[in-house]
Amino acid sequence: MCGIVGYVGKRNIRDAKDIILDGLKKLEYRGYDSSGIALNIGGRLEVRKHVGRITNLENLMAGETLNSNIGIGHTRWATHGAPSDLNSHPHCNSDGSIAVVHNGIIENYVEIKEWLSKEFGVVFKSETDTEVIAHLIGIYYDGDLQEAVYKAVDKMRGAYAIGVVAASEPDKIVAVRKDAPLIAGLGEGCNFIASDIPALLKHVRKIYLIENNETVVVTADDVKIYNEARKEIKREVFHVTWDAEAAEKEGYDHFMLKEIHEQPKGIYETLNRRIEEDGSIKLDGINMTKEDIEGFNKVFIVACGTAYHAGLVGKFVIENLAKIPVEIDVASEFRYRDPFVDDKTLFIAISQSGETLDTLAALREAKSKGARILSVVNVVGSSVARESDDVFYTWAGPEIAVASTKAYTTQLMCMYLIGLYMGRTKGVIADERYNQYMSELKEIPEKLTKLLEGESSIRDLAKELYKREQVFFIGRGPDAGVSYEGSLKLKEISYINSFAIAAGELKHGTIALIEKDTLVIAIATQDKLYEKMLSNIQEVKARGAYVIGVAKEGNKEIEKQADKVIYIPDCIDEVSPLLSVVPLQIMAYYIAKERGCDIDKPKNLAKSVTVE
Ligand code: AGP
Questions:
Q1: What percent of the chain has pLDDT over 90?
Q2: Does pLDDT of 95 surpass 80?
């Protein structure tokens, strides 16, 4: 889950350094353990790299001209070898004539390393898997970089998107993609490679989506794509709709806060693009017939992290609306437990980035068992999308902050739309219920905007809570799913040890951890479960807990139990997760801010996890 960028311009325009550095900054959410750049200057590869943020690299190069028309760059999320200058990319071969940037993992790198040292006396400088690629290409190089890369790739196993330059070929970048994201950007008199769209948004709108096992040869005038058989192929140009501003903070202190405030628009877009004049739902990207939908005897929702939490609510919604059993699993477990999946299974993969390798691997497993693959994805043209039978895009726009917010609520909206669509198609939802649901969902963007106006009171609450080192989140039904998400948000950006549990499960052990002043966040938005939640709150209060409740306006009973209450606008139980999660996102944000945490780039995390 590193970020790679490559740029080739005309020889007389020597701006590669700045263009690549700027692109890396836009990809820093993919990893920020170290960064580096390789520029071809006068037939020599000038490599500069430094541990830590890109600012360290900029400072390292401050005062150096380093003018060049071609280069590759990298921002790292460490997998093999701790963050250090030596382990930073680009990595070079022994004489520095080849430089490589890499996103992914070379699974057989130890074997190759031993072979290279034994057969060619190669001495390795770093602990990384990537360095073997540079040495492999180096030993195969005889003046044709593309051929040398082919030979190296034939020896490698694993996941990789690599960008390669050679000192003696100052007008060419060769890149290869296998199970890690790679795009090529088509400029005027210059061309690019990158791991993700935000790196190129400032310069291009036309890109090529590179498929698995394809090689790209990029020069200033041309981008050539070669398929697995190494035959040149033509590729349709993909026009990016996101604008450069979308990848900027627009005055907010952090991308996370900006993206929290973008949720009304994201939810509005995700819903209203799918409602026809007559109020029926049209699911673009889904080509399932009535027979297909009636043929499924099980739905499997599989995802990771926040996307998995959206699936937890999705299970309730789709079971309830489509009257079909729904199983849910984390992708890394589903992948290896030989699940009961067959051609009567609808497999729903949820992923913001569409590049999470655990989810991609689970998808391939389900596909191999004959399941129909429907994915709910935010990044257009991503791997999960391309390997699915049906793709249902969330219209959240680019999500830059590592902590996912607007992707989660738009994923929830997709769960409601899929449940309503399947239920209506099967004829198991009464019109009245369908219409009630649709009108409630249409009111969410406005209710969410109103909720966001109360941000300051949550900020003030956060000022009271930020010193806590342990927090418990409890909820029942769909609120239990929301409590997991609230807990994850707090954990991943404030590093507070936070734990979520279904409220009814608390008394079976975990309540032993509740003592005087322990902070408990109780999400109680389900009218049918309200009484039960109030007694769970009494249980923890009886052990001295300090309770913050989240409830629907009008449900004031909770004030007698909880120490503080955050109210969300009234709505039917089923759609409340679209609202109740937002105060939890805001609270996590301001607690992390009070603790001085790096909110957009939390330690040890990265935006899309492209390793298993
Ligand atoms: C959430 O805030 C985290 N960034 C992480 O849990 C994330 O949800 C998970 O890695 C899944 O990512 P995806 O949606 O891109 O597949």
A1: 85
A2: yes
Q: What is the mean pLDDT of residues 319-339?
A: 96
Provide φ and ψ at 94, rounded to 5°: -55, -40
Contact (Cβ atoms closer than 8 angstroms) between residue 89 and residue 53 = no
Atom 6, ligand 1: which residue's CA is nearest?
A: 305
pTM for this model (two decimals): 0.83
Measured between alpha carbons, how far is 136 from 218 in angstroms, rounded to an integer? 21
Known catalytic membership, residue 265: no
Pocket of ligand 1 (CB under 6 A): 304-307, 351-353, 356, 359, 402-404, 492, 608-609
Q: Count CB atoms within 10 A of the CB of residue 48.
A: 19
Side by side, the strands of the sheet bearing 390-393 are 326-330, 298-303, 345-351, 372-377, 390-393
In the predicted model, is pLDDT for residue 244 greater than 80? Answer: no
Q: Whose CA is nearest to atom 10 of ligand 1?
A: 305
Which pLDDT belongs to residue 221?
94
**What would the pLDDT profile of 454-474 be if each residue is shown by its tens digit?**
999 999 999 999 999 999 999
Residues 6+ apart with CB under 8 A from 184: 175, 191, 192, 193, 207, 208, 210, 216, 218, 223, 225
- Token pair in block for residue 383: 């791997």
Cα end-to-end span (Å), the chain: 11
Mutate to test the pocket of ligand 1, among 260, 302, 306 (most ligand atoms within 8 A of CB): 306
Under 8 Å between Cβ of 521 and 548: yes
